[in-house]
Amino acid sequence: MKRFAACFLLLVLGANCTPRSANAQPSSYQVGNTTVSVSTLSTGLDTPWELLWGPDNFLWMTERGGRVSRVDPATGTVTPLLTIADVTETGESGLLGLAVVPGSASNQYSVFVVYNYTEGGQLKEKLVRYQYTVGTTTLSNPQVLLGNIPAQTTHSGSRLLLLPDNTLLMTTGDAQDLPSAQNRSSLTGKILRLNLDGTPPADNPVPGSLVYTLGHRNPQGLVRAPGTGKLYSSEHGPNNDDEVNLIEANRNYGWPNVEGACDLAAEQTFCQANNVREPLFAWTPTLGVSGLAYYDHPAIPEWRNNLLLLSLKAGTFSALPLSANGEQVARENRLWTGNYGRLRAICVSPQGRVYAATSNRDGRSNPAPTDDRILVLENRAFTPTSTTRPAALNLTLYPNPAPAGSAATVQLPTLRASATALLTDVRGRQVWQGQLASGSSQLILPPTAPGLYLLHLRTPDGAELRGRIMRP
User: Fold this and answer.
1) Which of 9, 94, 169, 279 could form a disulfide with 161 if both were Cys (CB 3.0 to 4.6 A apart)?
2) What pLDDT, in 10s, does the model give residues 38-79?
3) Catalytic entry in 155, 216, 297, 456
4) Residue-wise burial string across 421-436, b where 16 or more C-beta atoms lie within 10 A, e elsewhere
5) DSSP codes joined into one string, 315-376
6) What is the pLDDT of residues 284-326, one digit of tens each?
7) Annotated catalytic, 297?
């Protein structure tokens, strides 16, 4: 009877009460002509929320209870860095999104996290920046960049995404205050864009405002396609219309006035008047869409230029092929449904491996003894060739530091094509943009104040490089 009552409650919540160990878990799946193997990298985790490939070639992970860790992708060893003391984990709240950004020194990173906390008896959300030094096992020097954001035990987002111009995107849910999603003075129900010090970039849609897009219910995934530069988000619908959206600056995504497409008379009127962007794809009934990644690696050629999407309620792993311009999704190719329970976080390594984390200890499932886990999906038959895009390219700048007004040579010995170059200051403000030829090119730095500048390069095949230039 007790077991029946627990299952009944989970079903009411839209969860699956089948024990994870009872579900079939194949060791491989066939994707076209490619065999994709699935194995377990790490076990015994507690509700992983974010999983990303870090600049140190380790996996970085948040768990909802407040722990930030690095995970060795070769051994699965989890190295805790910090358990954040003021995280409030209740309902869906807790430690959420994560971004890891190389700092001004080559052995230091800035680590950004967003989480829920309690102040004055009220649940809120904040964005905090920590410092990490390579070789250590801790995070230090916390600085609150954004705080006092209204939150609830549901609908608080939140993903973080670093952009090539050194600005940060942060998603927020509507915190169960539906009208706030359409209120530009509120930070809830939005995708925000900010400099790495928390200030609004000068080229945001509205000067002085962090709001990049509005009209969101509860965005759960956020990713950028390097080749086209386009941004995508996955978002929970109510009982209908889970969405995958193409994110464009200053667009309205409709909530709560529009659910899914603009297909009702009242919705059409609102959409025409408010610059609403309809979803690329929607699901009714809902899946509980969650983590979102972009795949474009020859290891699994059938997934090239695909969005990879996880879901919680349905426990699906899906591939969504994008059109060449990245503006359409034709169909959903589902790899599995329910085999591993609830799925939350996903990322792709430079070697073309996919890492996915389960979320079976989030209170809405019946976890197996080894849950939660990080799964690895890979094509073990893939052998890199000389034509395969390298995981990393050497970038040499000289002289470095470069005197004001002088030329700095950018040497790219392994680059086979031109690259788009962007020069920013450490706050992400653009100083210069242009094209660099393969091999080596000269770049005359414009007159600027003394300080550190960052050079970002993007090749046509989507590889991204970074270098630092110091202005004395």
Assistant:
1) 169
2) 999 999 999 999 999 998 899 999 999 999 999 999 999 999
3) 155
4) bbbbbbbbebeeeeeb
5) -EEEEEEBPTTS--B---EEEEESTTS-EEEEEE-TTS-EEEEE-TTSSSB---TT-S-EEE
6) 999 999 999 999 999 999 999 999 999 999 999 999 999 999 9
7) no
